[in-house]
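All the exercises in this workshop are built on plain-text protein records. Sequence and backbone structure share a record, each on its own labelled line. The structure tokens are whole numbers drawn from a learned vocabulary of backbone shapes. The record below serves as our worked example for the rest of this section.
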Amino acid sequence: MSTKNIGLVSVGVVALNEAAAISALLEDIVNQDYPHENIEVVLIDSGSSDGTRDIMKSFAEKRQELGFSSIEVLDNPKRIQAAGWNVFFRNAKGDVFIRVDGHATIARDFVSRNVAVLNAGEDVCGGYRPTIVDKGTQSNWAETLHIAEEAAFGSSVSDYRRGGEARYVDSLFHGAYRREVIEKVGLFDERLLRTEDNDLHYRIREAGYKIRFDPSVRSAQFARSSLKKMLKQKYGNGYWIGRTLFVQPKCLQKFHFAPFVFLLGIIALTSIGAFATWLPFAVCAALYAAATVVLTIRAAIQSPERNWTMVALPFVFFGIHVSYGVGTLVGLIAGAFKKMPPFDTAFSAEEGE
């Protein structure tokens, strides 16, 4: 644990075509209760075509009146998330790097809470990060998709999604990292498009650092507004679980492969049914259906705003599991036949990319 108090804090935002959300997030940064003169804002645009970069530039022009130490707008020519965060790490000058996704919102005390946890002796920290429905896409269907996203059965059992008491965890979202941690552990692996966090946090733990979850640190991510977007995201997540198995297998957990095992079960039971008997398939299908119905009823009871589209939750859960499982299967096949080139994650203070 570090005992060095924090001076300058670098807050980074990486965004691609987030014009609809970025202004509200920048307002969240303006509203931070941490002294603005001790905050450096680094905004990275990944080649947006919707005016995101123009919004960032306009914000940077207000630096003097906003009182921030500095506001930089940088480009991420590689466009992928991991490369964007590496641009941030290489250019940030703070004692601490805080990452915030471009499609998110942060509490007024987000920076100060992170700093308080780190000043208590931690090296890496983060907090509770649920998903919420964007007011611009509010509808009954959006609320139903949000319920599926928040449910452990439909999304993830990750610590940062569940909240709870302060504790040490394996990974987190919107992390705050002391500079020396990144200097020692290195940058994101740009070969990994969805699992870069898993890899970095695994390397952080292997280097002897602990990752502190503190529920007082609060932010939120906007949920996908359509089933198509949600299933596309789940497929991509699954795909990169499969690919990562050939790059950094130790950064993955058993629960990452649950949808893949579910998919294999469907394939196996269908094969048994085609050549022998459909009884095992029928029994397992009935058990799965019963579980989804029970969880749907539970979600409806717990939801403050019940609506008729919730009857589709069992089908949404099934779609999430299958799309994620298929993605993992395709990723495993791709990983077996298409090797990734080496990538040096060593930290460099050189500017630019």
Summary: The first strand starts at residue 9 and ends at 15. Residues 8 and 94 are 5 Å apart (CA to CA).
